Structure formats: C-alpha cells, structure tokens
TrEMBL record:
Its EC number is 1.1.1.262. Keywords: Cobalt, Cytoplasm, Magnesium, Metal-binding, NAD, NADP, Oxidoreductase, Pyridoxine biosynthesis, Zinc. GO terms for biological process: pyridoxal phosphate biosynthetic process; pyridoxine biosynthetic process. This is 4-hydroxythreonine-4-phosphate dehydrogenase. Binds 1 divalent metal cation per subunit. Can use ions such as Zn(2+), Mg(2+) or Co(2+). SUPFAM superfamilies: Isocitrate/Isopropylmalate dehydrogenase-like. It is an enzyme of class 1 (oxidoreductase). Belongs to the PdxA family. Pathway: Cofactor biosynthesis; pyridoxine 5'-phosphate biosynthesis; pyridoxine 5'-phosphate from D-erythrose 4-phosphate: step 4/5. It is found in: Cytoplasm. Transmembrane segments: none annotated. Substrate binds at residues 139-140, 281, 290, 299.
Length: 339
C-alpha cells in the first residue's frame, strides 16, 4: 500500500445520484489526500458524465493496474458491468446483483489490503430486495455479514455543529414494530463496546462520554410508560459504568438533544433509526458522514439516499460524498483497521 491512501468508491444505484456525485467530485477533487478508484459500469459513468456536461474522462483499469493520483477530470474505474440497461430516475431491480457486486469488489479489495477504505454512494434498498435479495436491509448489515462479524454500529457525524454531533444507533433498519424486541442487554453491551472503542481509535477521543437515549417517552417514566429502560438499558449502563465506560442515561430522547446535554458529549446512542437520525440530519444534512464501526475495514458513506428525482439533473449536492471521502482518507491515515 502506498503512503497516499487508496479509497474505493462504490457508485451505488445506477438510476440514482451516486454516479452523478462521483463524477462531480472527479471533475474537481479538491484538497483530498488520497487516491480514488470508482467501482461501476464505465459506460454508465461516461453516459451520465455526458448527460451532465461534466468533462470527466472515465479510465477503466486493468486487473492489477496501479491507481494513479487524483487528477481533475479523470475518474479511474474498476469495471463492473450493469446487468440491465439503466435510465436515470427509473429503478430496475434487475441491477440488484450489479450493485451488490460493486460492494463485493470494494470489500475484497479492502480485506486483501489492495485498498485502504471504501466509500459508498447510495443504493436503493427496495430495488435490491425486489431484485432477489429479500433479506437485504442496508450496506451496514451487508458489510457485517460479508465481514463475518456479529455486530457493527452505524454512526453518523457532522461538524456543522459546535461541538461536532455524532449519533450512533442501537438498532438500524428495522420496522418500528420490531425495535423494542431487538433491544437486549447483550446487544446493547456489544454496541456500546464497539462505539466506545472506535471513538477512541478513529476519532482520537481518549475516554468518550456517551449519552444514551431511552426507548420510551420520558425514558419509560419509571416503568409506567415502558419497561425497557428499567429492565434492560439502565442495568446495562450501570454495569458498564462500573467497568469504566463513561455513560450517561438512559435520558429522555426528546430533551437529550439540547445544548446543555450535548455540550460535553462525544456521542449519542439512539435506540432506533428515526430517534437519532432526524436530529443529525436536521443539523448536518449535506455535510454529514455515515461510518460503520466494528468492521475489519474502513467504510464511510453519505448522509442521504438515491434521490431518484435528482438523478442526471445536476441538482444533487456532492457535499456529503466529499466529506465521506475526506473522513475515510483521515481514518485510513490515522488508524489501522482491526485484522
Ligand atoms: N447510504 C445509502 O445507501 C442510503 C442512505 C439513505 C437512504 N438510502 C436509500 O435511498 C432511497 C431513497 O431514500 P429517501 O427518499 O428516504 O432519502 P433521500 O436521501 O434519497 O431523499 C430525501 C430528500 O433529500 C433530497 N436529497 C437527497 N440527497 C440529496 C443530495 N445529494 N442533494 C440534494 N438533495 C438531496 C431528495 O431530493 C429528497 O427530497 C431508499 O431506498 C433508502 O433506503 C440509501
Ligand atoms: N440509515 C442510513 C441513513 O438514513 O442515512 C441509510 O439508510 C444508509 O444505511 P446503510 O449505510 O446501512 O446503507
């Protein structure tokens, strides 16, 4: 591996804005301290560049060919062929296998040490499911299974706030109906352990202070409005506090996200997706990064989805992908992934 980290960008759902954003960055890489190779269909990328009037030359690389330094207007590509013709804005589940293959290429490259980090443009979960992968729920869970680990943690972070806001999730892509049943002491302990360790390792926080949300209104109101705080969350936090982890909570989620609480917090652990992410996206949408913690490789992503209605329009904002690349480059330089 060279001194300049190599980032692999998966271009995501071909009908969405992932190709557009990758091309927009390739048109003008900015002060990125990394080399970048995209994974996707070169013809799709060339066609989308033409549609967007972006002067970006697509350069498919041969097996084993070195990835050059970033040059404005040049996008090196590891080629994966589309499975079906694609049209901007129109999903075709026939390309589910294409999208997953782009992920597999990036995962294998990172695991084999041929790349230093992967950065994912958005995919469409529904299209993957309808394309023959009924158990698919997201990159996060796919990476967990592909890497053979029991637990990973989704963390989204923005530096648009002061201090930076980092929100991790105890559960990820579950129907709300299933959330309460998914919260147990063992899982919560695993999530907090990964979160605390990776805040140290990747964010340089020696002893992270983590605020933990309750699940129920008013953190269960002493068991009157739900028992998960009393029976699961509070005892787990107490036991881990005794082991030296700096945990606060469970706190009522409606007032946790206020300046008084957040002033000295390094991260918030929300119990479910739409408890934590609306706050994070309200504060930082367009400039936030999604990081998967607990993996034996570095993976960052954008804070948004496929925005099909913006594909090939030139209106999609590449800010979050730029942040995801910069964070991946920093993580690759600073912290070696677990073996
Ligand atoms: N990292 C990922 O792969 C990822 C992340 C989030 C959502 N998704 C998936 O994306 C699909 C669509 O999800 P959604 O509609 O809930 O969210 P979305 O982020 O695609 O769109 C939500 C709103 O934000 C706008 N928006 C999104 N990205 C933008 C950008 N870069 N610039 C300007 N405006 C932008 C859209 O136009 C829309 O109004 C779903 O399948 C979802 O699961 C994937
Ligand atoms: N939960 C993420 C978000 O709302 O931004 C998004 O769905 C992406 O998840 P994966 O990285 O697991 O695909």
């Amino acid at each position: 591996m060279g001194i300049t980290p190599l980032l692999v960008v998966t271009t995501g759902e071909p009908a969405g804005i992932g190709p557009d954003l990758t091309l927009a960055l390739a048109a003008s890489w900015g002060p990125l301290e990394a080399r970048v190779v995209a994974v996707g269909d070169p013809e799709l990328l060339a066609a989308r560049a033409a549609r967007l009037s972006l002067a970006v030359r697509i350069v498919p690389l041969a097996d084993g060919e070195a990835v050059p330094a970033c040059r404005d207007g040049v996008l090196p590509v590891w080629s994966v062929p589309l499975r079906a013709p694609t049209e901007a804005g129109r999903l075709d589940p026939g390309n589910a296998a294409y999208v997953l293959e782009t992920l597999d290429v990036a995962i294998v490259a990172c695991r084999q040490g041929r790349a230093d980090a992967m950065v994912t443009a958005p995919l469409h979960k529904g299209a993957i499911i309808e394309g023959g992968y009924p158990d698919f729920t997201g990159h996060t869970e796919y990476l967990r299974d592909a890497c053979g680990v029991d637990e990973v943690v989704m963390l989204l972070a923005t530096e648009r706030t002061d201090p930076a806001l980092r929100v991790a999730l105890a559960t990820t892509h579950l129907p709300l109906r299933a959330v309460a049943d998914a919260i147990d002491a063992g899982g919560l302990r695993r999530v907090i352990t990964i979160l605390a360790a990776d805040l140290q390792r990747h964010f340089g926080i020696a002893r992270p202070r983590i605020l933990v949300c309750g699940l129920n209104p008013h953190a269960g109101e002493d068991g009157h409005l739900g028992v998960e705080e009393r029976d699961i969350i509070a005892p787990t936090l107490a036991a881990m506090r005794d082991e030296g982890v700096d945990l606060v909570g469970p706190l009522p989620a409606d007032t946790l996200f206020t300046p008084r609480h957040l002033a000295d917090a390094d991260a918030v652990l929300a119990m479910y997706h739409d408890q934590g992410l609306p706050v994070l996206k309200y504060a930082g949408f367009g400039e936030a990064v999604n990081v998967t913690l607990g993996l034996p490789l570095i993976r960052t992503s954008v804070d948004h989805g496929t925005a099909l209605e913006l594909a090939a329009s030139g209106q999609a904002d590449a800010g979050s992908l730029r942040v995801a690349l910069n964070v991946a480059a920093r993580m690759a330089r600073d912290g070696a992934p677990r073996a």
